[in-house]
Structures are given as C-alpha cells and as structure tokens.
Amino acid sequence: MKARLLLDGGSPKVPPGELKKIVQDSRIEVSQGRADFGIVLGGDGRFSRYGRTEDMPLLFVGVRSKGATGSKAHLARTTFDELPEALAMVRSGKYRIDEHKRLGVLKNGKALGEVFTDVYLQRGSESTCVRYNVKVTGPRIHIEEAAIGDGVVVTTQAGSTGYYSYPDRVKGEWMDPTAFANLGRDEVGICHVVPTFTERTGTVRHPLRYTVPWGSRIDVSLFREADARLYGIADNHIGIKIKMGDTVSVVAGKKVTRLISFN
Predict the structure, then answer these.
(1) Is residue 48 classed exposed, middle or buried when 0-12, 13-18 and 19+ CB atoms within 10 A define those classes?
(2) Are 43 and 63 contacting, i.e. CB atoms less than 8 angstroms apart?
(3) HSE-up of 41 (CA within 13 Å, CB side)?
(4) Is 195 found in the same domain as 245?
(5) Which of 91, 116, 153, 201 has a CA-to-CA distance to 163 between 20 and 30 Å?
(6) Is 260 a domain residue?
(7) Pairing of strands 58-62, 78-79
C-alpha cells in the first residue's frame, strides 16, 4: 500500500521526516507519484485546499494546537498523536470512504474550478463595504437579493463549520467559539458576512443566512465598483479580482471528494 504526503509547503505543523517515519513504521510505502491514498496533515484550510484538488482518497490528520487561536481542524478524521492506530486500521481495511459533493465555480461563464468546502466574495484591503446582488435559480426556487456588507459565503455541508457558522458563535456581545451549523448533504448554504443591509425582492425580509437545494444556481455580482475578491478557489492569498459587470456563478460540481473515515 502506498501513501502520498500532502503537507503545508511553507511551514508544516510537523516536520516532514517525522511524518514519513510514522507512515513507514506502519508498513505503508511513501510515494511521490501514484498512491492508494493521500495523508493531509494540517488544519481546515489545508484540508479545504487538497479536498478540492485531489481525486484519490484522503485521510485528514489534525494537529492539536497549543495556541488558543490555532486551527480547530473540524474536518480531521484522526489526529497526529493517533495516526499510527489510524494507519493500522487503513492497512487492515477497517475504514470506509465517504464521498462529499463539490461546488463548481465560474466567472462570467468560464469555469474556475471546484470547491470542497466554501467559496466567498469579500471586500479586499482597499475597499469598505461591498454592494452586491445575489440571484438563486433552480427547480421551484427563485430568489433575488441586494446586500451591503463584507461579502457573501456559499458553502457545502463540509464547509458549514467554517465561515458560514459565524452567526452561531455570536452570543449577544460575546461569542461561543465552539458553536457551528449543520447542513444536509443536499443543501447549499448562503451567508452574508457582517451585512449592514440586505433586502429580498418581493418581501419585507432582510436575510442573513439560509440554505437552498443542491443543484441551485447562485449568481453574485456587484452593483457598485469596489475592491472585491473571490476566495476559496485559488491557492494565493489575494484572491481573484471581481469587477462591475462580472458574474460569479456557483453550481453543483461534477466531482466528489473522497475521505477516509472510521466507525
């Protein structure tokens, strides 16, 4: 059995040599090429990145953070200190493969790729509030909204514990960092980020967060020029520039992310 190690290229949470030794001691060959599965060591950001780019089964391994603001690794299926036991279960076939749907992201009709967790349009460093429209269409659904705020998040079930969950963590003037939302496999979540105003056409409602059926088409566009960036679909930290006249579309993806899980 072969495994490929997928680490943070900048500053991995664990020395690569240490991880490699644990894998080899588990009688699993470390491969730089074709492999039976990938081992992703890190936090939810790293899991999200490889979850949208890799087609082979993935084992998400979290690292317990000593710092209060370290990654919470909600998506981890095991932890680094429990990795030898998890690898032994993989070798003996005592695991299952869970398939998670991805969302496809387009800009002006051109495919940018797919996301495993979430994608979000947000104001850049040179902008105040972003003014944008959201249009949702699909079988038996049609929503049109306008909003002013920091941006909007579109998420899968796998990404629902991240940015999408910020309203769950707000408890009056305090917050509960452990709170998070739950989405169904056939739901897509839409959440406005710290809005100062929202308006849904044809109603007197001012939405903050809601779900739509899987397969719905979500179109987002600016109605005033701003330094707006699309995040979650690119590997860089500056995002993809979105201008007036551009349309970001989020649809059902064509691929799935396969995760190794244990009973």
Answers:
(1) buried
(2) yes
(3) 27
(4) yes
(5) 201
(6) no
(7) parallel
- Token readout for 58 is 């993935």
Q: The domain spanning residue 40 has which CATH number?
A: 3.40.50.10330
Task: Give me 132's structure tokens.
Answer: 């944008």
Contact predicate 120/103, CB 8 Å:
no
* Residue 55: inside a domain: yes
Average pLDDT of the segment spanning 13-27: 91
pTM of the model: 0.92
Q: Are 226 and 126 in contact (CB under 8 A)?
A: no
Query: 47 and 122 share a domain?
Result: no
Domain residues for 146?
A: 103-254
Whether 217 is covered by a domain: the verdict is yes
d(CA 6, CA 42) in angstroms, rounded, equals: 9
Task: Tell me the per-residue pLDDT of 100-153, one tens digit each, with 9 for 90 and over.
Answer: 999 999 999 999 999 999 999 999 888 889 999 999 999 999 999 999 999 999
Number of domains composing the chain: 2
CA distance linking residue 10 with residue 17, whole number of Å: 15
Phi, psi angles (nearest 5°) of residue 137: -130, 150
